[in-house]
Design brief:
This protein is α+β, with helices and mostly antiparallel strands. Helices cover 40% and strands 30% of the residues. A hairpin with a 4-residue loop joins β2 and β3. The protein is globular. The chain starts with 12 loop residues before the first helix and ends with a strand.
Length: 137
């Protein structure tokens, strides 16, 4: 049996309460099992596509009222234009925008693009979903 290590995690109360509700719906016996599955899925995703050409989607929710955020995100996308197939901008509210960027290319370059976008101040949520790996002409 593998050695088990205990560690602490600090979270906002509301986030933990929501997490607990969701893992109960999913039928997890403990928080530890749910967190273990999250970490395993994260690591499997990272390892599975390493060194391959992939297609995927970058989803961003950001604070539109943050100074120069739209321009910064656009500048980053132009730097990586060779990876971007399409993008969609959705106004969720006066303050919030939802940006969907469809990408294809080498996984390491897409990861670099994603990390650049999610690191911009004012980006509230950022997700990279790899739809699959394939060869591109």
């Amino acid at each position: 049996m593998a050695k088990i290590t205990r560690f602490g995690v600090s979270l906002e109360n509301e986030l933990l309460e929501e997490f607990d509700r969701e893992i109960e719906k999913e039928g997890y016996p403990t928080r530890s099992k749910a967190i273990s599955d999250l970490i395993n899925n994260f690591l499997l995703h990272k390892i599975k596509v390493k060194g391959e050409y992939v297609a995927g989607v970058i989803s961003l929710i950001y604070d539109h009222e943050r100074r120069l955020i739209s321009e910064t995100l656009t500048d980053i996308q132009h730097k990586y234009h060779h990876l971007i197939i399409s993008s969609q901008h959705i106004h969720m509210s006066q303050e919030r925008c939802f940006e969907i960027v469809i990408v294809k290319g080498k996984d390491s370059e897409i990861e670099e693009l994603f990390n650049s976008l999610k690191g911009v101040k004012g980006v509230l949520n950022a997700y990279l979903t790899i739809a699959g790996s394939c060869n591109f002409d």
